[in-house]
Amino acid sequence: MADSLTDTTTVPELVGLAAADAHDAALDARLLAIPQNARHTGAGRSIITNQRPKAGATASPGDTIMIWVDDPAAGPSTDEGPDDDGNGGGGGGSRVPDGPRTTPTAGAK
């Protein structure tokens, strides 16, 4: 049995796969794929357009792979994922939530 502190896995190539297949491939590598944009569909029609870390990287079992997905039926996504050109573009990714919002109470004056 491998020592859990030195146990590693290789990040699979998810770009180009259907979302359902990408999730399965990540799980097979003992990793979890987490969508970073709202284009994900439960029916698996979405296609992975970007991932971080990139394929071939070393990870620990249980680590997450951030994925960006695009639904071909909805047209191209405007969120291509992080800026990986190395020119300090600041990246991309998901937006930080604004925080809780107040909901009016029924019957309040």
TrEMBL record:
Gene3D superfamilies reported for this sequence: 3.30.10.20
Pfam hit, one: PASTA
Chain segments carrying region Disordered: 39-109
Organism domain of life: Bacteria
Domain PASTA: 10-70
UniProt name for this protein: Beta-lactam-binding protein with PASTA domain
